[in-house]
Design brief:
68 residues, 60% helix, 0% strand, elongated
Length: 68
């Protein structure tokens, strides 16, 4: 587990800040129908669920553990 932690240390120890201004500009150009298909609002991204699923994926693919 320690080796795996060290492997991903750069991604887990640092702060990551993403700016999303361009996506708002792009979304403003979409029709209402396109907005229904291509939902782009990054404010509604569920980071807790995404992080938990990311960790499960690491366990499954890197450690060959059961996904359940």
């Amino acid at each position: 587990m320690e080796d795996l932690y060290e492997l991903f240390a750069h991604f887990t120890r640092n702060e990551w800040i993403y700016e999303s201004n361009k996506i708002y500009e792009f979304e403003a150009q979409l029709t209402p129908e396109e907005r229904e298909i291509f939902y782009l609002d990054p404010k509604t991204y569920d980071w807790d669920t995404a992080t938990a699923l990311y960790a499960k994926g690491i366990e499954y693919y890197m450690n060959k553990q059961d996904f359940h």
